[in-house]
């Protein structure tokens, strides 16, 4: 095959060769996917329906949950379907769509996490100016900038990746179409352009991480000066979930892309990719709701309403 335009499909890396293990993989990913859908869906519903949660912090949390839903829906369903149907194939257009959506949504996630750190910085370090700085218009502009910049970044990566001639077969050593694995199929030095873009993107991720760290240095400096222990505890409780999510996301991505080539293998690459592409979108709703009383109360109301509504429907059908 002389170039990528002659490829009709790619072959993804299978989790298992035997039918029993394929079905086990399907069951595990189905459980993870349903947990991600349920957790993020409940969180989105709670924030949208509870007027007490119509604040900048929860607005950005809603954006984060939308991105998490997109990330897990981009990669997991296709892998599940391939295991269930005992195939490894993905169409060329499907692979391009996976690359675009994954880069777009993952980039948006890191942008929103950075904006959330700024929101916490303003709330704790400049509380008297919080209403004027983090008004509804400003929040909408920040969210739009995060989504738009990620969209442009994804377009550049996708267009550049699939314009590179591919002649090393069509087997992608990953359970979804990931740019570094596709670049291994290239047959010229033209892939160096995309390597440059990846390095640039990683630098942007690192810049986001630095901005988050600087925000929290300022936050902790102010919080430790609060005289009351209750005040310090309350301030920390709004920051710890965000720090946990940032640590989980950044550490797994950095390890995935910066690990030494000497320890790289298809099996390890797959495990690491699951850790940064599947685990964070599933865990984020749990992390944010564990120490947040307002969110817990809103989630209880949503769950109670769902059970009440389903019970009413069942009674009506029974009649």
TrEMBL record:
Record carries keyword Transmembrane helix: yes
Cytoplasm found in the keyword field: no
Entry keywords, A to Z: Cell membrane, G-protein coupled receptor, Membrane, Olfaction, Receptor, Sensory transduction, Transducer, Transmembrane, Transmembrane helix
Domain G-protein coupled receptors family 1 profile: 39-288
CDD domains: 7tmA_OR14-like (cd15227)
InterPro entries per record: GPCR_Rhodpsn, GPCR_Rhodpsn_7TM, Olfact_rcpt, Olfactory_GPCR
PROSITE patterns the UniProt entry points to: G_PROTEIN_RECEP_F1_1, G_PROTEIN_RECEP_F1_2
Membrane topology: Multi-pass membrane protein
Subcellular compartments: Cell membrane
Transmembrane segments: 21-45, 57-77, 89-108, 195-223, 235-258, 270-290, 302-318
Domain of life: Eukaryota
Family: Belongs to the G-protein coupled receptor 1 family.
PANTHER family documented for this protein: OLFACTORY RECEPTOR
UniProt-recorded name of the protein: Olfactory receptor
Organism field: Apteryx mantelli (North Island brown kiwi)
Name of the encoding gene: LOC136993126
